[in-house]
Amino acid sequence: MYFGISIATAAAPGMTAGEALRRVVEICQFAEELGFDGYHAAEQHFTPYVVNPDSIQLFTYVAAKTSRLQFCSAVAVLPLHHPIQFAERAALLDNLSDGRLSLGIGRGYQRRAFEGMNVPMEDSAERFDEYLDIVKKAWGPDPFTYDGRYYQNAEPISVNPKPVQQPHPPLWVAGVSFHSLEKIGRGDYGFIKNFADNLETCRQQVEVYKNARRQAGLPQSGDRARIGRQTCVLDDKREADALAEQYVRRFQSLFAGAVSKPPVGASYAHYQSEQYLRDRGLDGSFDYPSYADFSIFGDAKAAIDKIAYLRDVVGFGEIDFNLGFGGMPTEVVRRVMRTLAEQVMPHFK
């Protein structure tokens, strides 16, 4: 199995943004030493929930300080980027890192980001589809023109350099509604899942994704489903559970502030569903026991059991351990990583 990490770049109490970002480098170097496969980073704008407005720039710095670790944006909000610049910057990083880049992309759901970037949120789905088409053409071997709704170029252009990985870096797409999962499956993309949603909902999402691939005639061997789960695993189960609850509750207050303005547009109807709001604690309550049930908290045995369930029942073959949430100290993060690397991951390698 693939095991990656994401390390929250939100500053802990008493930590500057610069210190939080430099901690990412330290943790990634430690992850490489321990044998983790990759590092994931979420793009966020105008909120202290995550201090990272540009994953490609962050990855470029971390790539210079590591040699083996893979990188995956989880996710880059494609409608907020110029598609040609996005294609160029990703291709440049793929060259600089010698092919260690994959791209998780999504259309975004945080209204504050769209308003701050002066991008209409109502047409994010159409803009996402068009921009993704442009990015893939830009990575292709031939100069191209484009006459779209949001981007046009009449003179043929060719992006240079081209990605090291051909035809392009692996692409993963985020989604929550079944309609989105069908599109991801038909498009032959990987499905990348964030930290939220209960496990039965996740199982149904994976099932829809895989069924769409079968209906499109795509092979089972190409199924790619990766899930991020908040993780706190230590030798002492009671300590791990207590620390998890402490930092989850702080994280939850930051997250709720970041999404206080609901998304607009008919395509975001699912984001107001009872299940979506309940699982994220956005319905006016926060059910921590239920939240802990779909996270990876406890001792090594509990983690092994949860990962096996995520693989064998829910259907995810790749795991992203979300670490450092809610300002969790570096010392605790390093202990969790060592426990995972020494006592959990060997069961699945």
Outline of this structure?
With 349 residues, this protein is α/β, with parallel strands linked by helices. 44% of the residues lie in helices and 17% in strands. It has one domain (2-348): TIM Barrel, CATH 3.20.20.
The neighbouring-strand order within the major sheet is 1-2-3-4-7-8-9-11
Strand content: 15-25%
The low-pLDDT segments are none
Give the SSE string: EHEHEHEHHEEEHEHEHHHEHEH
What does the average pLDDT come to? Answer: 95
Q: Using the coordinates shown, work out and report the CATH topology.
A: TIM Barrel
Tally of alpha and pi helices: 12
CATH hierarchy class name: Alpha Beta
The CATH homologous superfamily corresponds to Luciferase-like domain
* Rg from alpha-carbon coordinates: 19 Å
Main beta-sheet strand count, sense and barrel state: 8 strands, parallel, barrel
Helix/sheet category: alpha/beta
Percent range for helical residues? 40-55%
Q: Note the overall shape.
A: globular
Estimate nothing, just give the exact number of structural domains: 1
Q: What is the distance, rounded to the nearest whole angstrom, between the alpha carbons of the first and last residues?
A: 6 Å
Can you describe this structure?
The chain is an alpha/beta fold and 349 residues long. The chain is globular, with a radius of gyration of 19 Å. The relative contact order is 0.15. The protein has one domain: TIM Barrel, CATH 3.20.20.30. Helices cover 44% and strands 17% of the residues. An 8-stranded parallel β-barrel has the order 1-2-3-4-7-8-9-11, surrounded by 8 helices. The longest helix has 22 residues.
